[in-house]
Amino acid sequence: MTEPKTSMIETALYVVATPIGNLGDMVPRAVEVLQKVDVIAAEDTRHSARLMSHFSIDTPLVAYHDHTDERQVSQLLERLSSGQSIALISDAGTPLVSDPGYRLVRAAREAGIRVVPIPGACAMVAALSASGLPSDRFSFEGFLPAKSGQRMNRLQLLVTDERTLIFYEAPHRIEACLRDMGEVFGEDREAVIAREITKAFETIKGGSLAVLSDFVASDPNQRKGEIVLMVRGKPRLSEQSMDAEAQRVMSILLKDLSVKQASQLGAEITGLKKKALYQWALEQKDDS
Fold this sequence. Notes:
- The protein contains twelve helices and ten strands.
- It is of the alpha/beta class.
- A five-stranded parallel beta sheet has the order 3-2-4-1-5, sandwiched between helices.
């Protein structure tokens, strides 16, 4: 075991985000931490070696990935307990976001070892920020099952979810995934595909699931690289039943009346059900 660099950085487990494509997205604090820690636990040491070389980081690398056993976790904890500092990185982006790391972070916290996040790039956050889909509430679902039957079963559990749904998908499965989503969610459900974010051939394309399915099928390039797929949540009852005129009427009534009074009067004016108008009015209050 190498001598710890305890004089250079505080003993802790540092969870360090790395670029998802463009090396210019590496934050200075991440470079400094990776240079100063005693060891870097990497998902793939060969892959990460290229990043280390680019930023002139000569800190030793050890493997930590999905198949790491408890013995390796114990060895890393021993290092931390002896006063060494460790940085945890994944192949790209923020560790623990659909990447290994949960067990080590949990074990470190249970052992009373400080865990320090070093924020930076994250593919799903970057994709959501540029998607134009609602971002006030969302659910990250990671990778769906590879087999169609299991994938559709998982999607069925999400069909009524009103939050924006975010998935990672492998390029060789994206066509089948879009077809299954169209069958479960309906082909007219709005979605956005974000491919190769921050890289030379970055593509962000929105439309219905049917439109995206045709888009991917017609262009082989869209079946390459890293993919984030986002699906708009199920429309609220009010979004399905309230036309523009009814919304205008209710907006006027709500300026001077309670939700109950506005819903009752709005039902008489528009002919819509009082319950639907009442629910719409409550949602406007929640969103304001």
